[in-house]
Amino acid sequence: MTQGVGVAGIYVRDQDEALEFYVGKLGFRVHTDAKNGDYRWLTVQHPEQPSFQLGLYKPQPPTVDAATAETVSTIVAKGAMPPLVLIVDNCRTAYERLRKVGVEFTQEPVERYGAVDASFRDPSGNGWKMIEARG
Amino acid sequence: MGTESESNEGRAQDPALLRRLLRAKDRMDAASHEEWPVERLASVSGVSEAHFARSFKEAFGVPPHRYLLTRRIERAKALLRDTEQPIIDIALETGWQSLGTFGRVFKDVTGESPSELRTREQAATHALDEVPHCYVSAAYRPNLTMAVSEKRRREASDTKDSEDKTEVPK
Fold this sequence. Notes:
- The complex is a heterodimer of chains A (135) and B (170).
- Chain A is α/β, with parallel strands linked by helices and 135 residues long.
- Chain A contains three helices and eight strands; from the N terminus they run βαβββαβαβββ.
- The longest helix of chain A is centred in the middle third of the chain and has 12 residues, at 66-77.
- The radius of gyration of chain A is 16 Å and the shape is globular.
- Chain B has 170 residues and is mostly helical.
- Chain B is globular and about 45 Å long.
- The relative contact order of chain B is 0.12.
- Classes of the chains: A alpha/beta (135), B mainly alpha (170).
- Chain A binds chain B through residues 13, 70-71, 73-74, 76-79, 83, 85, 104, 106-108, 112-113, 117, 119, 121, 123-125, 129, 131, and chain B through 12-13, 15-16, 18-19, 21-23, 25-26, 29-30, 59-60, 129, 132-135.
């Protein structure tokens, strides 16, 4: 694939914490981790999806002003950011593995309409739906 | 509670507190049929009981027990629509302790009785298979901008049942 979405990002409250979560727990890999003063461009990749990077950004000056950064932080912490979906081969297996390493699940695996799904949040409050790939 | 401000006049709530309040909301979402007394919710959030309800309302716009009520009604609506379960079973499964209370609150909130809603919804067709379930489900959540007791009061010119002050859906 040469055309398409390359990076989409989420706001996190702490980039070190987010890195530990997405890489250490979910199994993503670091794609780019570039610091420039206080600013840090951090993206991770799913190991099976090399054409896409998930950005883990902290809302902070200079990209946004301090008051906006604070507003955005509260929105993230309230879980009001848009939903994210992670596709897995086996939802129950992934659930067991991730739960053991301390991922905060908000819904256990449930089967509906022939597919199994579960929900979890990252430490910042971003909500993920984990859905089993339909065969 | 530590250095975090729970009562804040005019200031934004601390994101760390909001994240913990979100945990209480998530827990109600996951098990809306269970009883959620304030002490249980406060403990999930690591907030004092005295501050919990106000902090939650400030964060999410509705008092915690009204939020719980909307989730129960939403779930009941889905069960009425998607299953053939008897209404009494749906009432008990979604956290009410009697059919009477369920039917009354349901009608107060939605404007229809459970059986009316079931008949209407089941006649309609739904093409939402491609949308993850929880987002479809959220579309059926009642938007309760006032207490049920207040809604009831406004809709009934003959206000007879003002005894029901509590929003705790028991």
